[in-house]
Sequence to fold (204 residues):
Amino acid sequence: MEKTPTGTGVGVDDPYAHVDRCDHLTDAGKCRFAVEQGDRDPAFADARSAEDFQCPVAGDLDEEGLTGPWEWADCPHFRCRDQRGASAASASDGASGVTASRECARCGLQARRLAHSDERPLLEEHHLSYADASDGRAEDGDPSHEITVVLCRWCHSKVHDSWARIDDDVNPDAEAIAEAESRRAREQDELDFASAAERFDREE
Fold:
């Protein structure tokens, strides 16, 4: 199983098996990195420019699946952070820096919104791949790639502290459900707004 730099498991054998698409891939199949950040790697940008900036992994979008000559692992600038519903997740769960889907990738626990709260979020970002600390490259010498998913903090702990896997077919922990329900109740209380006039009428 893939390991962290400290030797704990990350819950997957192959991080790329949990990749939907690269963050730099546009809906038109172009490489956004080469267009917007080409100065960081001019040779890469020039090569992509010669191909009309077409992603060498995605290939022809008119065909089913990824049809390009490369795999995700071949691209030096590949990055995949689980970004479905990105702004909604960080806002809904108070999760600073977690730009991800609104539910745990392992058990399905959903984020709960608590405005103006500094409580620990229910969902946390979980890294599936790690750079070598010395030079930012993976142990095999290939460029390291950022691949992350979102887990609830209970699943996150299980994955790092045991042999739990990301693709386990599990339900949320009882403690996780209780915490989510508590937040849901407080969320409903926040939404149960009564104007000053209405509160005065009730007191009367």
Remarks:
- The chain has a mean pLDDT of 80.
- Residues 15-20+82-203 form one domain.
